[in-house]
Design a protein that fits this description.
The protein is an alpha/beta fold. The protein is built from seven helices and 16 strands. The strands form four sheets. A five-stranded parallel beta sheet has the order 2-1-3-4-5, sandwiched between helices. A five-stranded antiparallel beta sheet has the order 11-10-9-13-12, with helices on both faces. The radius of gyration is 19 Å and the shape is globular. The N and C termini lie far apart (about 50 Å).
Length: about 240
């Protein structure tokens, strides 16, 4: 994977570069930038698979820049401000790392990026094909095969660029589809969209707070635009 680092602090760029060299042998650093404009100019004529991007940047912020980059390019945000975590998922970020960056946390983010990059690279066989057979399951095409997926078996659905990842207990199924398409076929009595990139099965929620939903080992952020809807629909039904 070809990656670039965008951060206005020299020490921060050096730290991320060191973390990449120590923990991501399959990644090639092809650029280091102290402003988003110079990075944008580079990306116009050079392929980039992953961007390590600081949010608090002079001029164009990291969040604004992330909205302008090619759909195929993945983003991991790096920042000292944890309050931006939810906003980062609204622009399809792969992960969000808070400075100072923990070594193990960095490894997990890189592994996630590498896994998603592989998904996006294997476009053949991931074309969208979905058929709802009854009220219990549907068929979806992935990797040249059709999978029979029970609604009850879904933990949550994650959007990634032009694809969705259906998370089951011990399996992830990826298909070319947008979030609206799958949201339209999921039963509204059990599924609710909690941010731009996630739809959760409310029957699988183990706990939650004002910002996150916890399902097994997964943490799903609640988007600002979706928070009231989640609490009104999910929490209210237990208070009736």
């Amino acid at each position: 994977m070809k990656c670039i680092i965008i951060d206005d602090e020299p020490l921060a760029r050096e730290t991320i570069e060191s973390l990449i060299k120590e923990n991501a042998p399959n990644m090639e650093i092809v650029g280091r930038f102290n402003q988003t404009q110079s990075a944008a100019t580079y990306m116009e004529s050079n392929p980039v698979d992953l961007v390590f991007l600081d949010i608090q940047m002079p001029g164009t912020t990291g969040l604004e820049f992330a909205k302008s980059i090619p759909q195929k390019t993945l983003v991991i945000f790096t920042t000292a401000y944890s309050e931006y975590a939810v906003d980062s998922y609204e622009v399809d970020a792969i992960d969000y790392l808070t400075k100072p960056i923990d070594d193990e946390r960095f490894k997990k983010a890189v592994q996630k990026a590498e896994s998603y990059h592989e998904f996006l690279s294997q476009k053949e066989g991931l074309e969208s094909s979905l058929e709802v057979n009854n009220q219990e399951y549907f068929l979806v095409k992935s990797d040249r095969k059709f999978f029979r997926i029970k609604f009850d078996d879904i933990l949550f659905v994650e959007g990634l660029k032009d694809y969705v990842i259906i998370h089951l207990d011990n399996q992830k199924i990826v298909t070319r589809m947008n979030m609206k398409g799958i949201n339209d076929i999921l039963p509204t009595n059990h599924f609710i969209r909690v941010n731009k990139s996630f739809i959760v099965n409310t029957e699988k929620i183990e706990s939650f707070d004002n910002n996150d939903i916890f399902i097994k080992t997964f943490v799903v952020p609640i988007g600002n635009m979706y928070r009231d809807d989640f609490f009104n629909k999910y929490v209210a039904k237990f208070q009736q």
